[in-house]
Amino acid sequence: MNPGGNPFCVTILAGEVSGDQHGAKLVSAMKKKTPSLFFCGMGGDALRRAGVRIVVEASELTVVGITEVFVKIPAILQARAKIKKLLISLKPDLLILIDFPDFNLHIAAVAKKLDIPVLYYISPQIWAWRQGRVKRISQLVDHMAVILPFEQQFYKVHNVPVTFVGHPLLDANLPAAGPISKANPSVPTVIGLVPGSRDIEVIRHLPVMLDSANILTERFEQATFIISHAPSVERKRIQTVIDGHHLRATVEVISDGVEKVFERCDAIVAASGTVTLQAAIYGIPMVIIYKVSPVSAWLGKALIRVPNVGLVNLVAGRELVPELLQENATGDNIARAIQNMLKDEEEFNHLKHQLIALREMLGSGGASERVADLALEMLTR
């Protein structure tokens, strides 16, 4: 209860599928510790199932790339107005922001004027591009809860209160990091294709992934392919791409979660994002690809300040797995990278061990519990 005797009210804002899922785990952890909490805000099905009253549907705002945001401007402005009205009328005891920086930092400024404390969980990738935003964060955010080890030092240097809580992916039941091998790595038995969790990512990535599947089928007769279908994408979107492709490879679409793909695959081709780090902690070798509009790519090259874009390589501090971006993300290049990865048994197993070793760098399980403790501490100050 707050000093007035009423239940604490928390507004939580998540704008991406992964943020919705991580936010739901956080809400559940907080409710377990303090059942009387009331939650409302922006998100999707995961937060709704966790008991959050959803005022703005996050799926209406999700975009990929810099220029692509323009078509979403009316929806973004409308969502901002709704959340601003919510903060003014409800005056929550705490605002929790999850990634989604351009939207969330605008709302943080509103909260600052209303004297609402702000906890930011899952940092925007300002260490990679647009580092100037850290000054704004220092002015608007009361505490950062970061999930990548190098982020803590970044914020400390800029005098922002910060806690490294570990990565929420480690809260899952992960396979044991025991001996690993592949009976015959020269024959790629099953390759996973993970095009992304947004319609536009499927449209851009799946065709070149299928091109690579055709090429690998010619080189390895026993190759089969599993396409991961994210729940945020309509299955018919994937099927439309498949039906429109001159496909010679044997493919299967799985909707039961990407973990089921990991369980069956020797390696994957994945769109850059959280899923690549998830694959790494499962010990799954991968080729990372990504494609955005030409203008977004040009702006990205001008603004990005890190040598790699894949989270696996960023955490490792070097290019542990291949990255094929923009015009380099072709079927032939992807097939060549997969073939090179699987042709040497010793190197293949060494890579798997290196990927699994990233688990230790990401901390330990219990991220949601640690953030819940931070949030509850901020509520009771």
Structure in a nutshell:
The chain is an alpha/beta fold. Helix content is 46%, strand content 16%.
Beta-strand fraction estimate: 15-25%
Distance between the termini: 12 Å
Distinct helical segment count? 15
CATH-defined architecture of the largest domain: 3-Layer(aba) Sandwich
List keywords for this structure.
single chain, Rossmann fold, 2 domains, seven-stranded parallel sheet, six-stranded parallel sheet, globular
Description:
The chain is of the alpha/beta class and 381 residues long. It folds into 2 domains: 9-166 and 366-380, Rossmann fold; 190-361, Glycogen Phosphorylase B (Rossmann fold, 3-Layer(aba) Sandwich), CATH 3.40.50. The chain has helices at 17-33, 45-49, 73-90, 101-113, 133-140, 149-157, 199-219, 235-243, 258-264, 274-281, 294-303, 311-316, 331-342, 345-361, 367-380; strands at 9-14, 38-43, 53-57, 94-98, 118-121, 143-146, 162-164, 190-194, 224-228, 251-254, 267-271, 286-290, 323-325. α1 (17-33) crosses α15, α7 packs across α8 (235-243) and α7 (199-219) packs across α13. The protein is globular and about 70 Å long.
Secondary-structure blueprint:
Layout: E1 9-14, H1 17-33, E2 38-43, H2 45-49, E3 53-57, H3 73-90, E4 94-98, H4 101-113, E5 118-121, H5 133-140, E6 143-146, H6 149-157, E7 162-164, E8 190-194, H7 199-219, E9 224-228, H8 235-243, E10 251-254, H9 258-264, E11 267-271, H10 274-281, E12 286-290, H11 294-303, H12 311-316, E13 323-325, H13 331-342, H14 345-361, H15 367-380
Parallel strand pairs: 1-2, 1-4, 2-3, 4-5, 5-6, 6-7, 8-9, 8-11, 9-10, 11-12, 12-13
